[in-house]
Amino acid sequence: HVQLVESGGALVQPGGSLTLSCSTSGFNFSAYYMTWIRQAPGKGLEGVCGINNAGTKTYFLDSVKGRFAISRDNAKNTASLQMNSLESEDAARYFCTASSDYWGQGTQVTVS
């Protein structure tokens, strides 16, 4: 069955860095556009970034451009989100999705 498992969330100080990982199984990972979506407490879902199936094109929310990087390894069926210079506004639950068809349970990022 389809599984997406995020990991790497933690409590970090402002200005700190984190790397989130998304391990997947049960679907053709290399065929999917992968995205990271976040939800802060009391707020709606927000698309943070995405990467095409070949890993050659990326998208970033304006507020994270220059601070976040997304990557994928099609051989290992994994996606990663490198987050630098974290701000309090980045605090949220981060979800990995496969073209929004499949979602993980999320991993919590706290910036304080």
Characterize the structure shown:
It is a single chain. By secondary structure, the chain is mainly β. 0% of the residues lie in helices and 51% in strands. It is built from no helices and eleven strands. It has strands at residues 3-7, 11-12, 18-25, 34-39, 45-51, 58-60, 68-73, 78-83, 92-98, 102-103, 107-111. The strands form two sheets. Strands 2, 4, 5, 6, 9, 10 and 11 form a seven-stranded mixed beta sheet that branches. Strands 1-3-8-7 form a four-stranded antiparallel beta sheet, with no helix packed on it. The protein is globular.
Topology:
Blueprint: E1 3-7, E2 11-12, E3 18-25, E4 34-39, E5 45-51, E6 58-60, E7 68-73, E8 78-83, E9 92-98, E10 102-103, E11 107-111
Parallel strand pairs: 2-11
Antiparallel strand pairs: 1-3, 3-8, 4-5, 4-9, 5-6, 7-8, 9-10, 9-11
Sheet of most strands: 7 strands, mixed
Radius of gyration equals: 13 Å
Distance between the termini: 37 Å
Q: Tell me the structural class.
A: mainly beta
Strands, count: 11
Number of helices: 0
Helices and strands, in order, run as: EEEEEEEEEEE
| Global mean pLDDT | 97
Which band does the percent of strand residues land in?
A: over 45%
Helix percent reads under 10%
Provide the low-confidence segments as ranges: none
Oligomer: single chain
Give the overall shape, derived from the CA principal axes. Answer: globular
